[in-house]
What we know:
CATH 3.30.1330.60, 7-stranded mixed β-sheet, 8 helices, Bact_OuterMem_StrucFunc
Amino acid sequence: MRHSFFPSPVALAVVLALGCAPAARALELAFPGPAEKTAERAEAFGSLRLPMGPFAAGSLPTQLAEGALSITAFRLGLDQISTLEVMQGLQDQITAAKFEVLFTCETEACGGYDFRYGAEVLPEPDMHVNLGDFRYLLARSANGAFVALLVSRTGTTGFVQVTRLGKAVPVRAASTSVARAPAAEPEATRADQTGKDQTGKDLIAGVEAGRAMVLEDLVFASGSSALVAGDYSSLLSLAGWLQANPARRVVLVGHTDASGTLDGNIRLSRLRAESVRQELLYAHRISPDQIEAEGVGFLSPRAGNQTEAGRQKNRRVEVMATSTDLLAP
């Protein structure tokens, strides 16, 4: 049975510049039931790598897009409506607005865990992705604006994330309630920075003393393992030390807070540590033999997870020496 998609009162008015028209046309994305906007992230100008193929052979193909950025999450009340029906209804509306669908996939065909953690997703609980039931779509308009949809469902609750990049005006929602004010920076994106005044000298001294040292200034993309582009003083100091001491070996260890499952957090923490490793390999030309990457999820907290301050301290990437000469008594 095909369910109807009602443009009112649950329509999301997504304003996009379509084709070559001098003024923007409104694309009304209607949901098949009550919709609640739970979070929104907007940037006047940003860049994002959007998945445009399944995760396979250890990599996720992406399309770099730049321009006005908006990521909006919605929670839907679903009864007997599947994620396929939700996605198909949204896809019909997008194609009717002259967007070309570049890629679409479902759960395992997307790549499961690896696809989800390679994609930009707003943090829990605002956007939840059930790893056993989710769908993704990427589309592009004639003028180069991108729309990416991520649809998931748990029980009778559905979740939809709408990502827009390109010539777009920030999203406005018609007749949808906002569960909470969006944070200027999503909580899950930033590693603990309580020691952000840490000097490079302190970092290297700690590593040489055999201690696990937090790389205090790292920032990761929202809900993702991707390290945000930037000049990180901790990585500059670590890279300089490794270049000057080619016999030294270190391991990067990712940590998370206790939100979510153990398996998911171990995978996310390992992928974030690997993102830091890749930055050192390719941006700083460090030998691959000098750096390993591991993840332990929430198994090694340094604070309680009952408060946001504690969870913030637990989200981190640490570096420690594995060179036997440094570790000898």
